[in-house]
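Quick review question:
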């Protein structure tokens, strides 16, 4: 556990993928199979870690083209090939993430944190998010759920976190955002909330440390222990 300093927190905002729901292997599998099928010159871990940062919060149908161009698998000789790649990846991604499970101990963590006001802030769409939270039996723990459908720009833009803060009718300084990607920490800092990086997702400790989060926790259990000392 890494902590900058003791802080007061009233509201805890959670990312979903890689933070509460174990989608890391599903995403890696979808990217790896796409790479293999189309023989793409990419490093799987690098693409996953950096894709959201490359997009810088854009919400556009051109996002896949932007990623393809940045990571060097957009072919001007075969311009239609990119759409085949996109379709293949999205089918694999949807199929594998549908089978995602909660990370170990999530329900117990949410029970322990019931003294705090809780919210979800995710880059997932509303339909999938609400269905997933209900399927896993954790929807009722959250006062507020903000998805990519509720804002104009995605993380690392702060829109979604600021929307959650507004709906909670609180101040950013009283909130902690917990996420597993550099884009989560960037968004939290831009929104003026405290930030906690969790090492249960797709990013390494070293990569997350470069964003200078207020906290780094190995697991959600560590988060509970630390916040429990503040009650």
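Suggested answer, residue by residue:
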């Amino acid at each position: 556990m890494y902590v900058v300093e003791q802080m007061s927190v009233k509201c805890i905002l959670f990312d979903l993928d890689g933070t509460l729901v174990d989608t890391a292997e599903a995403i890696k599998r979808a990217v790896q199979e796409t790479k293999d099928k189309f023989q793409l010159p990419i490093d799987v871990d690098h693409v996953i870690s950096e894709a959201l940062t490359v997009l810088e919060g854009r919400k556009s149908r051109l996002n896949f083209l932007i990623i393809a161009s940045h990571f060097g698998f957009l072919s001007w000789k075969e311009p239609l090939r990119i759409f085949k790649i996109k379709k293949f990846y999205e089918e694999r991604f949807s199929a594998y993430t549908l089978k995602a499970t909660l990370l170990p101990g999530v329900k117990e963590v949410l029970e322990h944190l019931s003294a705090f006001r809780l919210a979800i802030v995710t880059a997932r769409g509303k339909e999938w998010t609400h269905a997933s939270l209900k399927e896993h039996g954790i929807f009722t723990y959250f006062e507020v759920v903000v998805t990519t459908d509720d804002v104009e720009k995605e993380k690392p833009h702060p829109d979604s976190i600021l929307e959650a803060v507004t709906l909670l009718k609180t101040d950013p300084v009283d909130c902690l955002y917990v996420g597993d990607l550099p884009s989560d920490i960037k968004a939290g800092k831009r929104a003026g909330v405290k930030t906690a990086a969790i090492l249960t997702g797709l990013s390494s400790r070293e990569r997350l440390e470069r964003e200078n989060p207020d906290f780094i926790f190995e697991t959600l259990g560590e988060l509970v222990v630390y916040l429990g000392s503040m009650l």
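Why it works: DSSP finds ten helices and nine strands in the chain. The beta strands are 2-3, 11-14, 21-22, 101-102, 117-121, 144-146, 175-179, 194-198, 215-217.
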